[in-house]
Design the sequence.
């Protein structure tokens, strides 16, 4: 693959997905796009890039984007964001949304579903407190392939051993051959939908809690700033955003600020919109 081919691929990925493919990631191209070449009967990476430059081919374009997207995830990843949901965000929402008895949660870049299903299990464990409440979990991702896997709810032994407490595995999963399937009652709590974060997501409505973790790290600064601006607009008053441990709004967004007490948690910078539910102390 020539330097010109690599630059063309970088431009394509940036335009279609926001992915900023840096020079040091060049080694990923052959390993990830080689199978795409085989699948579409394309002789070489240069020929593949030539196809991308030619007449639009939506199936090929989607396959390239999905191949170059990182889908690393696991149940209760990093723990703290889920402890915050259980101990601070959910109790806060229950106190602040009593008039509507409705809570909307969005997991952006949800990959194969472990993040939204982790939240669904927390909600199921808190079912007694939630009687009469309408709680929606929307999970989106640019990759239709990983969303199909998420909807099916099948996970390998390795995947269920990564972060999933054994009691929840036994309670909410059944073993089918060499895989585990999450229960229908948990699957039914999550709605999956394809979404490209660099495109408008205003049609999704507004949310009380937004998880957008470990995806901004793949964007350049202008794209990060744009996505954060639109995420802030998608927050209900008193809402909150959780980013990944290596992500921040500092220097990128004036609409969101770090929560003073909880790392990785961001709230609207407008005081009138940042009060409830996060004014509450953590539940005991």
Sequence:
């Amino acid at each position: 693959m020539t330097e010109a081919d690599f630059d063309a691929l970088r431009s394509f990925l940036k335009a279609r997905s926001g992915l900023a493919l840096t020079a040091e990631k060049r080694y990923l191209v052959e390993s990830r796009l080689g199978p795409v070449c085989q699948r579409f009967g394309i002789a070489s990476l240069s020929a593949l890039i030539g196809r991308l430059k030619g007449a639009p081919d939506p199936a090929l374009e989607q396959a390239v984007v999905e191949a170059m997207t990182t889908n690393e995830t696991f149940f209760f990843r990093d723990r703290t964001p889920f402890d915050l949901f259980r101990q601070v965000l959910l109790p806060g929402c229950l106190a602040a949304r009593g008039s509507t008895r409705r809570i909307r949660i969005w997991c952006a870049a949800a990959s194969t579903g472990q993040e939204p299903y982790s939240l669904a299990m927390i909600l199921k464990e808190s079912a007694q407190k939630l009687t009469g409440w309408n709680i929606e979990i929307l999970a989106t991702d640019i990759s239709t392939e990983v969303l199909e896997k998420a909807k099916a709810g099948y996970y390998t032994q390795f995947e269920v051993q990564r972060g999933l407490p054994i009691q929840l595995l036994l309670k909410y999963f059944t073993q089918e051959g060499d895989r585990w399937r999450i229960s229908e009652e948990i699957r039914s709590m999550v709605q999956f939908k394809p979404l490209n974060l660099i495109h408008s997501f205003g049609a999704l409505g507004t949310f009380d809690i937004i998880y957008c973790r470990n995806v901004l790290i793949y964007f350049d600064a202008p794209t990060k700033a744009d996505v954060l601006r639109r995420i802030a607009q998608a927050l209900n008053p008193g809402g909150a955003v959780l980013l990944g441990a290596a992500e921040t709004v500092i220097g990128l967004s004036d609409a969101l600020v770090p929560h003073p007490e909880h790392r990785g948690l961001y709230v609207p910078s407008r005081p009138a919109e940042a009060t409830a539910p996060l004014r509450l102390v953590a539940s005991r």
In short: Residues 3-68 form a domain with the Chemotaxis Receptor Methyltransferase Cher; domain 1 fold (CATH 1.10.155). The longest helix spans residues 80-96.
